[in-house]
Amino acid sequence: MSQDVFILVEHLKGQLTDGTFELLGIGREVAPQTGGRLVALLLGKDVRGLAEELGAADVVLYVEDERLSDSVPEAYRRVLAGLIREKNPKLTLLPTSSLGMDLAGALSVDLNLPLIAFCKQLAVQDGSIVATCELYGGRAVVEAEIPEGSGLALVLPGASPADKGRSERAPAVEEVKPSVDLAEVKVRFKGLIEPPPGDVDITRQEILVSVGRGVQRQENLPVLQELADALGGVLSSSRPVVDQQWLPPTRQVGKSGMTVKPRLYLAVGISGAPEHVEGMRDSELIIAINSDARAPIFNVAHYGAVADLFDVVPKLAEAVKKRGA
Amino acid sequence: MLDIVVPIKQVPDLVEELEIDPSGTALDMERTRFVINELDDHALEQALLLKERHEGRVSVVALDVGEVEETLFMALAKGVDQAIKISGDFGPAPDNHTTARVLKDVLGGLSHNLILTGVQAIDDLDGQLGILLSSYLDLPYVGLVSGVQIEEGGGKATVLKELPGGVKAELELPLPAVLGIQAAEQPPRYVPVSRVRQAMRTATIEERSAAAEGNGRVRVRRISKPEVGAGAELLEGSSEEIAEKIAGLLADRGLLK
């Protein structure tokens, strides 16, 4: 086993994701603890140019192949399994993303390596891989360890500031030829489907009134719409509201939805699971209203009110109209 | 014929306060209330939709963990053809690697060409169940799926996989396969308690047993609850006072027009 720390580089439409820099930032902290190098694994088609931006890593290993399209994790899985088996790093970090979630479990079985998911922090202490994980929708913190040997970790978005993983240095760059036959990949990419146009673009709004499961039923939405109107903002939501088809998918904030950074994010009846928080944590001002004092949204909000939204929201709309008038 | 298996997992009901065992390394299973993993409910809904669309049958399987019978009867009431409860020496809280290996054994004796699971659960400390199961079964896997079309003849499926920003990838894969469902094509159907009670009287849950080999290699050192509201300044008072305070904060920041 080597003492190196590997991170998987993720890129979309020719751009490195923030998640990549977050992993590099964490890797930069963990590598000195193992005494190994920080190695970035860059896979894709025509990706060599992206290596220059990965200066936080000591080494970039890149694999180019026509079939390494972003959207087919199975091809990534085959290449990564080969690379990790051959190089045998102490720890491999993957992002909790559409790509990473379709890789980690498979690599754990393929390589017979233990895996820790939902990681917020990672360290290597006396040979043990130690992780702090956010489980149960952010309602529990679990300190977990892989006591010996090497392992894999799925790291939550926002676990480390992306800026810690940016560097002006030039990394050593090395091309690797895949040792596996990608013709055997069973999943075939057919195309990308962009979200339907026509609805408002929530990523461009200054004020979002965002509703969650606490709204209880679709008939309750007009009260929130009234508040949004009074504020000159629009309604957005967490996943369950979209799954219930109370609002269109274009309004969804979080994983597989939009990442928003409005001047005001008013979270109403949203518990604040990690999948939601990753899409709104960088908002300038976050105010949360939730009847559950234990809701994790209060850990990310700047201001919070433990209250029944149906009591507060109409009064807030009134108070806003009064001041605006 | 489309033979769909939906492995279901019970998870703590987050409506209740989490209760931590005195050891500090696990939840207190005696005092925990369980519900179906929400995304498994979506997987079940997707299976029922596919059954209605094609000639097919749906089986649900679950390890005997966390009040699972209620959930299995709920699935029977919703219209699944078979519900299987697996007992074994996997303890009250098996990890997902263990659960996946147990399911692999049971699935070996069960006809199936499509396995649908929720793409994740709130307690997936050692990774997501569906992808682990697909790897043990050596079947193709796609996760974060929110749409499934089965091709005539049942040899292939075309699925929509969610990417960031509301974009979806259309992917084709041969069956049998495992899919990690993020959302069913419609909200999970509601079944009244009376129908669940009726299922309890008339339907049966099949029982199987399976050996659990080994344990996961991720050890829990400590489980704790995060400090509540560590980040937020709390606004207190009557609802009028809270509304006034929020309006004041917004006015101070020039957010009221």
Feature tags:
heterodimer, A: 325 residues, alpha/beta, Rossmann fold, nine-stranded mixed beta sheet, 8 helices, B: 257 residues, 28% strand
Description:
The complex is a heterodimer of chains A (325) and B (257). Chain A is of the alpha/beta class and 325 residues long. Chain A has two domains: 5-184, HUPs (Rossmann fold); 202-324, TPP-binding domain (Rossmann fold, 3-Layer(aba) Sandwich), CATH 3.40.50. Helix content of chain A is 25%, strand content 28%. Chain A has eight helices and 17 strands. The radius of gyration of chain A is 22 Å and the shape is elongated. The model of chain A has no long low-confidence stretch (mean pLDDT 94). Chain B has helices spanning 38-53, 68-78, 96-108, 129-137, 193-202, 239-252, and strands at 2-7, 10-12, 34-36, 56-63, 82-87, 114-118, 141-150, 156-162, 168-174, 177-181, 206-209, 219-224, 233-234. Chain B has 257 residues and is an alpha/beta fold. Helices cover 28% and strands 28% of the residues of chain B. Chain B has six helices and 13 strands. A nine-stranded mixed sheet of chain B has the order 9-8-7-10-6-1-4-5-11, with helices on both faces. Chain B has a two-stranded antiparallel sheet with strand order 2-3. In chain B, helix 2 (68-78) packs across helix 5 (193-202). Chain B folds into two domains: 2-209, HUPs (Rossmann fold), CATH 3.40.50.620; 226-257, no CATH class. Chain B is globular, with a radius of gyration of 21 Å. At the A-B interface, helix 3, strand 7, strand 8, strand 9 and strand 12 of A face helix 4, strand 7, strand 8, strand 9 and strand 12 of B. Strand 17 of chain A pairs parallel with strand 13 of chain B, so a sheet runs across the interface.
